[in-house]
């Protein structure tokens, strides 16, 4: 097992804090977090400690990358999802307790700490129907959805009659896209092969899907998706 450079991880954790504080200063007032220090303690320091105590970090690997870098990528996605929970509840006009975490990442057991197509969140809407939410964050201006996420969404729609929505945060450009995953057409021109991702087939998110700028007021689900 590789030896973990915890000094390097401390630098990465500081970078995560920097990202979230910069983001908090940018967003519209309605989702601004007044106690950002508390958020960083709970979602960066405490989560890091839990992963460290359970020997998860040294067992992370992905295409030969260093565990520290895999940790940073995972944590970056995790804190963005956590940060925007308040925005998600406002977008759907439901209380936070109507939002459940259903992803397969387990902070204690390495066997279940893995990337799967299961959506991150499940929401009970105002009309008591359920909706799955895939939260994504992009940091380089390349905005894609992996094919297996769409296939899983179509499977869940067919088997459980539950729709899936992707909320993609393009933090490079400060904008957010909303896509109904189970309605993406198999023959859409947006399906491309992304060479930077080992030639994976991905759905490239068209600019038309980006309907919210983080500096502006949050739109509402019912205004974007008419039933």
Description:
By secondary structure, the protein is an alpha+beta fold. Helix content is 36%, strand content 20%. It is built from 6 helices and 9 strands, in the order H-H-H-H-E-E-E-E-H-E-E-E-E-E-H. It has helices at 6-26, 36-53, 67-83, 85-92, 147-160, 221-224, and strands at residues 99-101, 121-124, 130-138, 144-146, 163-170, 175-180, 191-194, 200-204, 210-213. The strands form 2 sheets. It has a 6-stranded mixed beta sheet. The N and C termini lie far apart (52 Å).
Question: How is the secondary structure organized here?
Answer:
Layout: H1 6-26, H2 36-53, H3 67-83, H4 85-92, E1 99-101, E2 121-124, E3 130-138, E4 144-146, H5 147-160, E5 163-170, E6 175-180, E7 191-194, E8 200-204, E9 210-213, H6 221-224
Parallel strand pairs: 3-5
Antiparallel strand pairs: 1-2, 2-3, 4-8, 5-6, 6-9, 7-8
Uncertain segments of ≥5 residues (pLDDT<50)? none
* H/E series: HHHHEEEEHEEEEEH
What's the story with the biggest beta sheet?
6 strands, mixed
The gyration radius over C-alpha positions equals 18 Å
Helix/strand class: alpha+beta
Strand content: 15-25%
Number of helices: 6
Spatial gap, N to C terminus? 52 Å
Give me a quick take on this structure:
The chain has 227 residues and is α+β, with helices and mostly antiparallel strands. Helices cover 36% and strands 20% of the residues. The protein is built from six helices and nine strands; from the N terminus they run H-H-H-H-E-E-E-E-H-E-E-E-E-E-H.
């Amino acid at each position: 097992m590789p030896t973990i450079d915890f000094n390097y991880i401390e630098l990465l954790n500081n970078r995560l804090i920097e990202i979230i504080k910069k983001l908090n200063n940018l967003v519209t007032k309605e989702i601004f977090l007044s106690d950002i220090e508390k958020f960083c303690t709970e979602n960066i320091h405490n989560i890091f400690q839990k992963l460290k105590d359970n020997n998860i970090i040294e067992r992370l690997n992905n295409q030969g990358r260093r565990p520290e870098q895999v940790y940073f990528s995972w944590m970056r996605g995790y804190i963005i999802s956590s940060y925007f929970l308040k925005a998600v509840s406002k977008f759907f006009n439901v209380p936070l307790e109507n939002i459940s975490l259903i992803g397969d990442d387990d902070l204690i057991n390495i066997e279940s700490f893995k990337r799967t197509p299961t959506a991150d969140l499940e929401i009970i809407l105002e009309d008591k129907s359920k909706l799955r939410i895939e939260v994504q964050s992009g940091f380089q201006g390349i905005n894609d959805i992996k094919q297996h996420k769409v296939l899983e969404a179509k499977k869940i729609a067919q088997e459980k009659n539950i729709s899936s929505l992707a909320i993609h945060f393009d933090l490079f450009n400060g904008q957010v896209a909303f896509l109904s995953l189970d309605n993406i057409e198999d023959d859409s021109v947006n399906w491309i092969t992304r060479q930077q991702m080992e030639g994976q087939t991905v759905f490239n998110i068209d600019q038309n899907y980006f309907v919210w700028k983080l500096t502006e007021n949050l739109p509402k689900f019912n205004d974007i998706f008419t039933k």
